[in-house]
Write a structure and sequence with these properties.
alpha/beta; 6-stranded parallel sheet; 3-stranded parallel sheet
């Protein structure tokens, strides 16, 4: 039996307040879409089946390089994190899996599976950490991990990733995401070629340890914590890694890991075209890797990314099944509320992309009608699909208005009483 953290009766009562308005809005939107020969129920059904994983670390309060300000009722361990993640899924019905970060979330796999099952949660991709040092670690990653000049340090990083695979295999995960902060802060500090060769050799050892039904996601990032150069700095290098390692290796695209004004949707199209799009870390940014809530700054860009994903789905691209995960840092908001909002914004972009008239778009593209091709996308983007999102949640036991229902539940105040408060602030990202 699922251990629900928000009373089903409360969700039902909150939904009753909004059910009549939702029906009116849904019916009105359905009539409008029908004039375009679009079946609203078919769209709602597809949206209901679109899921995004939440990161275990996302339910804690984040921070910057300068400070971290603790929040109320912060999770103390992975089991507290799973409880908070279950609230997000209960209200949105969009986040049935959790992505773990090792060693922070390390625990007995039997206990993890049991806790997840009790909360109605499964486990998404595993995430290794070789960008900071763990307690009692033999070799430091201050100057790199998988690309380190010292063979023993590289071996330690490889063994840690293999440990992540073994734990993930025990709890039902099917992928490993590898992000490294390796790079240099001064010109001449590292040899670009030799450091990349060392990285590839280490990744080959990790790749060999993958079960047959697993995938390996490499993640690129143009800067930070290495500010002069990073070993995996862009999607081209990422693609080379995936091509070099083999069929089970694919590229992960974090929306914040690009230079400002980069055409991310074109990168997505290229990776789809050559069968190397592994998945996404969804967030938003203004300047760089800001890790802001998905859709909070550039919702149209998020829609354009999903336009490429739905186009691939529409064309029936062979082997196309990207993984979707939120990756954010919540510094000034309730993390649960931000993750609820982001899950809904991601589904919103998907629903809007499903409304694109692809036959007309193809025609305008073939006729070089730039204006009408653009207007075709904008018409879908301008459509208020909120009734579809709300109805998808309601049909599966979620909340019509998940943030309002979450606040009505008093869950955060309850946590503040149960979980000891963290005293004072701290420096550094956590």
């Amino acid at each position: 039996m699922t251990d629900l953290k928000i009373a089903a009766e409360l969700i039902a009562a909150e939904n009753d307040k909004r059910a009549s308005a939702l029906k009116s809005d849904y019916d009105a939107l359905g009539e409008r879409l029908a004039r375009q020969s679009i079946d609203i129920d078919a769209i709602t059904s597809k949206v209901s089946e679109f899921f995004v994983a939440v990161p275990s670390w996302g339910v804690g309060t984040g921070g910057t390089r300068f400070a971290r300000f603790p929040g109320q009722g912060e999770p103390r361990n992975i089991f507290d994190k799973l409880e908070d993640c279950s609230v997000i899924h209960q209200l949105t019905q969009a986040t049935p899996t959790v992505s773990l970060h090792i060693p922070w979330d390390k625990a007995d796999p039997k206990d993890l599976k049991a806790k997840g099952a009790s909360l109605g949660l499964g486990f998404d991709a595993m995430n290794s950490n070789t960008f900071s040092d763990a307690p009692d670690q033999a070799h430091s990653y201050k100057f790199g991990s998988l690309s380190h000049v010292d063979a023993a340090t590289r071996r330690q990083a490889v063994e840690h990733n293999i440990e992540c695979i073994e734990l993930g295999n025990a709890i039902g995960s099917k992928a490993l995401t590898v992000w490294v902060g390796d790079g240099s802060n001064f010109p001449g500090q590292s040899n670009f070629t030799r450091s990349f060769e060392r990285y590839l050799d280490a990744m080959r050892d990790i790749y060999k340890a993958l079960p047959d039904d697993w995938r390996l996601f490499s993640e690129h990032k143009m800067y930070e914590p290495a500010f002069y150069s990073t070993v995996v700095q862009d999607w081209g290098t990422n693609y080379l890694i995936a091509q070099t390692l083999g069929d089970k290796a694919q590229c992960l695209v974090d929306l914040g890991h690009h230079a400002p004004n980069t055409n991310i949707e074109m990168i997505v199209a290229r990776l789809i075209q050559f069968g190397k799009l592994g998945g996404f870390h969804f967030n938003d940014s203004k300047y760089g890797d800001d890790d802001l809530d998905a859709g909070s700054v550039e919702p149209y860009r998020l829609f354009l990314v999903f336009n490429e994903l739905v186009d691939a789905e529409y064309r029936g691209v062979k082997g196309f099944h990207p993984a979707h995960m939120i990756d954010q840092s919540h510094n000034v908001t309730d993390p649960i509320e931000s993750l609820i909002s982001s899950a809904n914004e991601i589904r919103r972009a998907y629903a809007q992309a499903l409304l694109v008239d692809r036959k007309s778009l193809d025609g305008y593209q073939n006729d070089n009608d730039a204006l009408m091709a653009s207007e075709t996308l904008k018409r879908a983007y301008r459509c208020d699909v909120e009734p579809i999102l709300a109805e998808a949640r309601r049909r599966h036991g979620g909340a019509i208005d998940p943030v309002a229902t979450y606040r009505a539940s008093g869950y955060r105040a309850k946590l503040a009483k149960e979980r000891p408060a963290v005293k004072g602030g701290s420096g550094g990202i956590v």
